[in-house]
């Protein structure tokens, strides 16, 4: 039997991660490792579409969920996140999106060639009360626009101030949309702002009331959008150059790290050392990708730094 | 960062392999110190590889701008090997506008590096180019030393001198050219150019 390749190992672990997150959402799965992690729906859909050929059952069960609970999916966020992804990600999303749109009226971006599909009817979402569904709960309360995402970000970090640009990044909505919504929230008395170096910084105004209202929060709210970009980019890197000569692998690994630097920082991941010149970098990148992917799939937050990840102690949780 | 011969070969091997992996193929023509290194005509370390032309269907075309995919691969290889972004550049491609020596393409030495084919200027063509550079940049330039290493004959120097006049027909250049020929042992150069 041929040894398993790095890319095959990564794709299996990515599928495991996607299964766990979808299971939190009510898809018919077995393993759950993210009951205390916020599940971010649109990056998860994009990841799942990219793995469609790897795990057809994951594709079909998640499609069933998307058709049944389409009202909880933010089409505008899908558009924004796809625009930030690579062409392979957009291409993979096309058929997935077309299949969902063949069964439910939604304004999703993507292709116009659905695959043959009959909903399985196995998806169940009985309550949004669980911590992992914190983000979806805000959508049930505030709709699928920027407002729900702003509340999610602010309530996840109730003692921190954000610029509009930071909120837009986290929310995956345009800065203009975020500024529009945050003004409404300010008028409602939920948000206040201060000026820091000439820039407005926004934070929660009525902390205890807001936290009581938004419900139970997860301990871990990673920024899934840049995380998924890093993971999919790494997966494709491995699939493309794993069998190439060492010098090519080193060049491509370095290019990958350079291209992903901003996403790695946004995701608050610790990076492998990229300053070393030489072919050993490839092994370090592969090892790093496998560690990060496996830790995420198993719900282990040790891969993150401290600066951007919310860790809410159980006593502080609403 | 400077190259010796093995370093230049390694960098070109890497570039050719990366281009091949990305599905690109290019042919380029090179001149200058790196080309002398590649042909074993000097051991002087150099900073970069000078590309004078892209070779497309056997025809020489300007290398300015270099194709995006080639520039990207050069940058990525330079980053990985610590060579900088412009270790391969199209600096001398203006030479193409006024014309390379007759027969340059036929005399060029082909070297294959993955999907990159390098047409390295021959010794005779390097004598042409180095004589021109020596006159242009003066007797203290590195080109004088390079030209001496090529051990040009009288006929080769005179052929090169006549070619340089196509690039600069001015009287001041002619005066400097005669001095340069004299420096290399051609004392009656003025009578032949």
Radius of gyration of chain A: 20 Å
Order of strands across the biggest sheet of chain A? 1-2
Number of helices of chain B: 9
- Biggest sheet architecture of chain B: 6 strands, mixed
Structural classification of chain B? alpha/beta
How many structural domains in the coordinates of chain B? Answer: 2
Largest sheet of chain A: 2 strands, antiparallel
Unreliable runs of chain B: none
Oligomeric state as shown:
heterodimer
User: What is the largest interface, and how many residues per chain?
Assistant: A-B, 14 and 11 residues
Provide the residue-averaged pLDDT of chain A: 91
Q: What is the H/E order of chain B?
A: HEHEEHEHHEEHHHH
Compute the separation of the termini of chain B in Å.
Answer: 40 Å
Rounded Rg of chain B: 17 Å
Q: Can you give keywords for this protein?
A:
heterodimer, A: 318 residues, mainly alpha, Arc Repressor Mutant, subunit A, 3 domains, globular, disordered C terminus, B: 193 residues, alpha/beta, six-stranded mixed beta sheet, 9 helices, 49% helix, elongated
Description:
The complex is a heterodimer of chains A (318) and B (193). Helix content of chain A is 55%, strand content 4%. Chain A is mainly alpha-helical and 318 residues long. Chain A has three domains: 8-101, no CATH class; 131-214, Arc Repressor Mutant, subunit A; 224-303. In chain A, strands 1-2 form a two-stranded antiparallel sheet. In chain A, helix 11 crosses helix 13 (280-297). The longest helix of chain A is centred in the C-terminal third of the chain and has 21 residues, at 246-266. In chain A, 46% of the residues are buried. Chain B is an alpha/beta fold and 193 residues long. Chain B folds into two domains: 5-121, no CATH class; 124-187, no CATH class. Chain B has helices at 5-21, 33-38, 68-81, 95-98, 104-107, 123-137, 142-149, 154-167, 171-183, and strands at residues 26-31, 49-56, 59-61, 88-89, 109-113, 116-120. In chain B, helix 6 crosses helix 8 (154-167). The longest helix of chain B is centred in the N-terminal third of the chain and has 17 residues, at 5-21. The mean pLDDT of chain B is 94.
